[in-house]
UniProtKB/TrEMBL annotation:
Name of the molecule in the record: Kinesin-like protein
Bias (Polar residues): 167-180
Classification via InterPro entries: Kinesin-like_fam, Kinesin_motor_CS, Kinesin_motor_dom, Kinesin_motor_dom_sf, P-loop_NTPase
SUPFAM superfamilies per the UniProt record, alphabetical: P-loop containing nucleoside triphosphate hydrolases
Chief site of localization: other
Signal sequence extent: none
Name of the coding gene: Kif19
GO terms for cellular component: cilium; microtubule
Family to which the UniProt record says this protein belongs: Belongs to the TRAFAC class myosin-kinesin ATPase superfamily. Kinesin family.
Species this chain originates from: Crotophaga sulcirostris
Ranges of residues in domain Kinesin motor: 1-307
Keyword annotations of the record: ATP-binding, Cell projection, Cilium, Coiled coil, Cytoplasm, Cytoskeleton, Microtubule, Motor protein, Nucleotide-binding
Region (Disordered): 160-180
Amino acid sequence: VVLMDPNEDAEEILRANRSREKTFVFDMVFDHRATQEEVYVSTTKSLIKGVISGYNATIFAYGPTGAGKTYTMLGTDSEPGIYIRTLEDLFKALEATTEEMDYTVSMSYLEIYNEVIRDLLNPSSGFLDLREDSKGSIQIAGITEVSTTNAQEIMQLLTKGNKQRTQEPTAANKTSSRSHAVLQVTVTQKSQRKAVGEEMRIGKLFMVDLAGSERAAQTQNRGKRMKEGAHINRSLLALGNCINALSEKGGSRAQFVNFRDSKLTRLLKDSLGGNSRTVMIAHISPASTSFEESRMTLIYAYRARNIKTQV
């Protein structure tokens, strides 16, 4: 990806060496002609085998407001996004291997808004707490878990849940999502032969539609929106710090990864640093007005690419 500065003047001799043109290298780059199917096949499809064999996987949609994160993740009825395509393939793959294994698939859909967690499938339950259970895995107390293997049913649930998301108009986008939405799918499998000390394999799949990251100047936020934006940017910063620490691991010093800085990173702790595979889909807008946002997004995503995890 080559990012050109829209304000750059070729005549200006003094700034000739200080060009802000930057080049970034990623595993995949899509232009505006890419279909939902292409994006899904090259980013997420390969993670499904891992989830079934007990690894964790995380998919992030990251980028400024209005660049298409929710479209990539949820999509529309005619062009479903990554959520639905992943689940359909997951169910197909599970059906193919059910000869000697018993499977349960449970999923929950929640949002993190201003550092509080809300259940999108049951919004009346109020704010929920993150707890750590005896095995040290993070649980959300009181979250609704749905087990179904019907992708249509799930699409309805997700669309309904998405309507419950905190959305507010900003100058950048009429229906800007002001919260991080997390779809958490847990696949548990046991062997049908009742052996002693029977092992359970648990694979978790997180699909995260992050809130828009942008400068307040761009969205002309004041008052409540401004505070909200600070919260959004704070949790994205915490995620960025974890990504930085993880990508520098094995460098000169053993880096401490602070997962407790935000609810988002705490929830994703196992899926960022542990037995996991992570994909970040960064969205940028081609408009010259959002040059700054595009630059920050690309730098962020480029850092995420350097994470090395010890599986």
